[in-house]
CAZy families CBM16|GH18 protein (uncultured Thermobispora sp), 103 residues
Amino acid sequence: YTLRVQGQDYGVDPFSVQILQDAASRGLNVTVNPMVMDFGYTGDWGSAIISAANATLGQMQQIWPGKSDAELKGMLGLTPMIGKNDTGPVTTQAVAQQVLGYA
């Protein structure tokens, strides 16, 4: 699922959490792709993307409590907007390298 990020410290929005909860209740194997773009943030953009990813992982831990951190991270993909985001920050090659280091 490709899902909307609400903010760097929140993760995906409440509707997206409901979608993931439904998938988990049905026993579906899913990949969670938060759209790490167009959200409010503080600090540098690369760190904000990583914070949003970590917040999403926290949500996933609540939805799939029986999975290990490694299993959950294996379910996580990130969907950035390359170049200038609609809200102003720019995903540069340096930012992409920073996020790749997180992965």
The radius of gyration is 13 Å.
